[in-house]
Amino acid sequence: MRTPALRPRSVRLGAVIVTALAVGAGVVTASPALAAVGDDDPSVGAAARNGLVVNEVESNGDDTDWVELKNTSSASIDLTGYAFLDDDSTHDAYVLPAGSTIAPGGYFVIDQLSATAPGFDFGLGGADTARMYDPAGDLVLRYSWTSHAVVTYGRCADGTGALVDTTASTKGAANDCSSPVRINEVESQDGTPGDWVELTNVGSTTVDLGGYVLRDSEDDHAYTIPAGTTIAAGGFTVLDETDFGFGLGKADSARVFDPRGALVDSYSWTAHADATYGRNPDGTGDFADTAEPTKGTANRFAGVVTAEPWPGGPDETVLDDEDTFTGDLSGIDWTTSSTSEDGQLWAVQNGDGLLYQLTSDGQGGWAPSNAAGTDLRYADGTGTPDAEGVTVTSDDPGAVYVSTERDNDVSKTSRPSVLRYATTDGSESTLRATDEWDLAADFPGLGANAGLEGVTWIPDSWLTEHGFADEHTGAAYAPSTYAGHGEGLFFVGVEGTASVSAYALMADGSFQRVATIGSPFAVVADVQFDPTLDALWVVCDDACAGRTALYELTDGVFTAAKVFEAPSNADRTLANEGFAISGVCTDGERATFTADDNDTDGFSLRTGTYPCESGGTDPGTDPTPTPTPAPGDGGSTPAPTPGTGGSTSTPTPTPSPDAPIAPVAPSGTGLTDTNRGSVSAQSSARAGETITVTVGTRYAGDQVNVWLYSTPTLLGTVTVGADGTVRVTIPADAPAGEHRIVVTAADGTVLGWTPITITASGELAFTGAEGLGAGALIAFLLLAAGAGVLIVRRRKAAAAE
Q1: Are strands 139-145 and 101-102 parallel, antiparallel or unpaired?
Q2: pLDDT of residue 783
Q3: Tens of pLDDT along 16-44?
Q4: How far apart are CA 153 and CA 146, in angstroms?
Q5: Regions of the chain where pLDDT drops below 50
Q6: Cis before 157? omega within 30
Q7: How many Cα neighbours within 13 Å face the side chain of 697?
Q8: Which residue among 242, 289, 571, 700 is least enclosed by CB atoms within 10 Å?
Q9: What's the confidence (pLDDT) of residue 118?
Q10: Burial (0-12, 13-18, 19+ Cβ within 10 Å), 777
Q11: Which helix (H) or strand (E) is 14 found in, with range?
């Protein structure tokens, strides 16, 4: 995360004077230009005398960090001019805009800056503090933590209890302090040794089940679970008929109560399952017929890839010395090397746009050969590319390709680009891009922090040999279709769509999307082609607890063959935004590498292992770059290598014979009061804005269709994240006025709808807790008082996550 410039404490007095002058002159601004922020005081707690409390904190979210306030008093509280800050006083405090109020018993979310809404332009770390100052600069709220919560830190009971790890994230709503115990699978016929009920724990800590009670549909059939019975976070505990003493019938129920007698979870059925009834996904999804009984383990379903244990070693080991990197290490790629059997690594750091070449010391350690990193720039020498992913190709050995989300110097504007840099070893202090393929035309409305997270390259020879299908032409992929694209395709992971897209990047700067690959994840953090396995890795970060998916080419389409959990001893809260795997097999193992964007405990680079069958090196698509430097000193722009580059109009795909059936638009008669409110979203949005729609955790992992309804417009077919939400973009040409957001299942069933007001793209929309502040576009104030002029300096750009 890029550190904002230091603001001297002396500006506090100046800010107060400016505010007084503005009030005296009758000047009203959207928010104060500078926050009047006093000193820190650890004695201040998370509850203020006026009833304002810190109620929930999200510091490791996959979208934005945020802090939720609650008003526990009986009167509204005006938060206008309050300032929010983390533990770093060099950061610019975020000032709440005019009109910020919190009703009695209500909630107010202070969100991180995004492309579509104002907010604080710093991140909340694993060890950090949330501080609130009143308009006079006095500290009124303070809450500190020493590590990320597994979910969020929230008050249990809501508003009044201690801040603890919650069961589910509840941004802008009452905290979920319920028991995390869930019924996960039920066997009611021909079980071994009889009927059984499997429980799972969707929480973050082990639960003592002693005193919990299992009942079927009859209240007098009750089994009290004995003391000492526990269930680990994410684990399974099975209750057998031999223990609970009654059978489960053809039409029956399983109900679980906590020791106080409160119902924790239940499931009813009207006929025996062919195998068993189980949740899909485990713990959070709806019940369905399983493919087979999986007593005490994760459920399995026909046609569904179930996450399985990591097949390699259980550990991830730190590779870099402490504080080698400054944070934000994001993309990573392994290549062969002419000087080391271990190969070499390329890595990029997103906040400050740096490129590193890393080499092995032959004893298990890795360090950058260019310790300061190479400063990446756009072709004209300006800007700071938000470098998220990196790859090299076999058809252009004197170059490195970098995927980006935006120019960090223009942080609110999306610029999802692939950039080419001419280098063989990263020894240049500064590099200008020789080519840029800005894919923005393919992603209208994409948020500035939702662009290209990862990039990899697959040679045409492999794609044609394995029968890759071209979705653009509707036929088998033919490289000759795309003149000047080089000898392979670039595959980019797109955060905002949670998918992977394949592109032909032409030397004249044009591009063409060739395929789109959906993912089972809420976020795609990286992609890596693995020629050893003839497969494509699709990687999620801490938003999915470090899961990875392995895609194989089946009938011309990349399809998820396996989904792996993180190694058993790995820290699943690490923001591992980069993933690479070595082509060298040693003693039956290949090294894996991860890049932690948060630089947890001062370390960014870690390694694990993945099994392999024999020794040797598979150079795959990553040969050692030719050690002939490109002409110039890195400050000029060399001529592009033929067949390397990017930008045409948005493609119009020709459906293939196996293309999925188009979603069916909902009818007005299906939108009733019964299903209104079953999904939720912000109450208003601007045309072109990306919004979050809450569908519900029971649909996690399911594909749904999201519509803007009046004249039905499909906003996207998306996979529901683990938190029960999806992200979609309102069309830039959406008419202003009253609309409805409608979510339908794959079969067209309406899951729910909610009203939304669309404003023109140039207008500001109030969106409650989500949007906080239509008036928060900061009005920089320049006042002259006598001969003195106070100049408010420009706030630095927000850093990437």
Answers
A1: unpaired
A2: 31
A3: 333 333 333 333 333 334 556 888 999 99
A4: 11
A5: 1-33, 616-660, 761-801
A6: yes
A7: 13
A8: 242
A9: 87
A10: exposed
A11: helix 11-24
Q: What does the pLDDT read at residue 764? A: 37
CA distances from 242 to 196, 227, 248, 458, 468 (A): 9, 17, 12, 55, 53
3-state secondary structure of 735: coil
What residue has token string 């994840």?
Answer: 521
Q: How far apart are CA 675 and CA 736, in angstroms?
A: 24
Provide the greatest CA pair distance for the chain: 91
Q: What is the DSSP letter of 544?
A: G
Token pair for 640: 């592009």
pLDDT tens string 168-186: 889 999 999 889 999 999 9
Alpha carbon distance 178, 181 (integer Å):
9
- Give the contacts of 413 (CB within 8 A, at least 6 positions apart): 115, 406, 407, 448
pTM of the model: 0.58
Give the Cβ contact number of residue 524 at 10 Å: 28
Q: What is the rounded CA–CA span in Å between residue 336 and residue 328?
A: 25
Are the beta carbons of 752 and 676 closer than 8 angstroms?
yes
Q: Are 526 and 453 in contact (CB under 8 A)?
A: yes
Assigned token pair, 405: 């989300």
Summarised one tens digit per residue, pLDDT across range 103-125 is 999 999 999 986 567 899 888 98
Tell me what pLDDT residue 513 has. 97
The pLDDT value recorded for residue 200 is 96
Task: Report the 10 Å Cβ neighbour count for 275.
Answer: 19
Q: 508-545 pLDDT, tens per residue? A: 999 999 999 999 888 899 999 999 999 999 999 987 88
With a pLDDT cut of 70, the percent of the chain lying above it is 83
CA separation for the pair 557, 516 (Å, rounded): 9
- Cα–Cα distance for residue pair 646/503, rounded to 1 Å: 9
Pairing type for strands 589-596 and 153-156 reads unpaired
CA 306, distance to chain mean position in Å, is 20
| Contacting residues for 121 by C-beta, under 8 A, at least 6 apart | 4, 91, 92, 94, 112, 113, 411, 795, 796, 797, 798, 799
Contacts for 669-675: CB closer than 8 Å, 24+ residues apart: 670/750, 671/709, 671/740, 671/742, 671/750, 671/753, 675/750, 675/751, 675/752, 675/753
β-strand pairing of 196-201 with 236-240: antiparallel
Residue with tokens 């320049």, as numbered in its chain:
782
Could you tell me the two tokens for 516? Answer: 């789109």
Q: Tell me, what amino acid is at 368?
A: P
Buried b (16+ CB within 10 A) or exposed e, 685-724: bbbbbbbbbbbbbbbbbbbbbbbbbeebeebbbbbbbbbb
Q: Which helix (H) or strand (E) holds 21?
A: helix 11-24
Which DSSP letter does residue 792 get?
P
711: Cβ contacts below 8 Å, ≥ 6 apart? none
Q: Is 99 left (phi over 0), alpha (psi -120 to 50) or beta?
A: left
Distance CA 481, CA 10 (A): 63
Average per-residue pLDDT for the chain:
83
Q: Which residues contact 760 (CB under 8 A, 6 or more apart)?
A: 686, 687, 736
Report the pLDDT value the prediction gives residue 61, as an integer from 0 to 100. Answer: 60
Where in 206-353 does DSSP place strands (E)? 207-208, 213-215, 222-224, 230-231, 236-240, 252-257, 263-269, 277-280, 286-289, 307-308, 317-318, 329-335, 344-349
d(CA 134, CA 82): 5
Q: Give the pLDDT of residue 635.
A: 39
Amino acid identity of 728? V
- Residue 654: its pLDDT value, please? 38
